[in-house]
Amino acid sequence: AQKVTQAQTEISVVEKEDVTLDCVYETRDTTYYLFWYKQPPSGELVFLIRRNSFDEQNEISGRYSWNFQKSTSSFNFTITASQVVDSAVYFCALSEAGNNDMRFGAGTRLTVKP
Amino acid sequence: DAGVIQSPRHEVTEMGQEVTLRCKPISGHNSLFWYRQTMMRGLELLIYFNNNVPIDDSGMPEDRFSAKMPNASFSTLKIQPSEPRDSAVYFCASSPDRDVIQPQHFGDGTRLSIL
Q1: Contact B112, B87 (CB under 8 A)
Q2: Contacts with B, A 41-60, CB within 8 Å
Q3: Given CB atoms, is A101 within the 8 Å cutoff of chain B?
Q4: Which of A25, A28, A45 is nearest to A37 (CA)?
Q5: pLDDT of residue A2
Q6: Residue B108 is nearest to which of A43, A47, A106, comparing CB atoms?
Q7: Would you call B100 an interface residue with chain A, using a CB distance cutoff of 8 Å?
Q8: DSSP code of A70?
Q9: Beta carbons within 10 angstroms of residue B41's beta carbon
């Protein structure tokens, strides 16, 4: 069965610090997809990135970067030079191929203080 | 393009009442999902549809919950009768293609409070 673990319940940093949010997943499938979503205080869920299991290249988008390592079943998310607007709950999620049942981790609440 | 539209944004009602949550997916999206978010259980998938047909409703907690998708642009999630433990934020999401896993786009959610 698919499972996503976000061990960090809450993280608090000061603005401009770098922060990494951990995500560890479990699946028996060889083809699967990993996602990160952001839930700001306003409550909506915002898609950030999708990565399939055959693409282990790291991705960078502005201050955001993602490190996918199949050897450790991890898909970690780093925010560089964090800003107050980055404060949100961040969810990692997993879907197995042919199965739209996207399983979410419990989320990590990030607070960035000015 | 308009995103996923959910209504109402907030609902407060007394236990025992029927509650109907509504969702309009993004035009052209073939899959529609209903999720429930609570502090205790996080985000849970309740049911999803593909081309208006329910594919997996194993997440629906009880017979009090039902969902329909009468056409490609509208879905409802109904709770009858409602109970205080149903209080949660209910999200609807849609995605364009079932065969290739695409990101799901979420609505703003309905915050439901059952008194």
Answers
A1: yes
A2: 42-47, 50, 52
A3: yes
A4: A45
A5: 76
A6: A43
A7: no
A8: G
A9: 11
A86: which 2 tokens? 């980055």
Query: What is the maximum span of chain A, computed from C-alpha positions, in angstroms?
Result: 44
Both tokens assigned to A66: 């993602």
Helix (H, G, I), strand (E, B) or coil at A78: strand
Spatial distance between the Cα atoms of A77 and A95, rounded to a whole number of angstroms: 18
**Cα B15 to Cα B115: distance, rounded to the nearest angstrom:** 6
Bridge partners for B102 per DSSP: none
B86: left (phi over 0), alpha (psi -120 to 50) or beta: alpha
- Using the beta-carbon criterion (under 8 Å), do B102 and A98 form an inter-chain contact? no
Confidence of residue B107 (pLDDT cuts 50, 70, 90): very high
B45 residue type, one letter: L
Interval A34-70: pLDDT, tens: 999 999 999 999 999 999 898 888 888 899 999 999 9
d(CA A111, CA B40): 20
List Cβ neighbours of A71 (8 Å cut-off, separation of 6 or more). Answer: none
Both structure tokens of B75: 């879905």
Judged by CB atoms closer than 8 Å, whether chains meet at A100 and B95 is answered as yes
Distance CA B59, CA A102 (A): 12
Mean residue pLDDT across chain A: 93
Question: Most B CBs within 10 Å: which of A6, A27, A45, A49, as the mutation test of the B interface?
Answer: A45
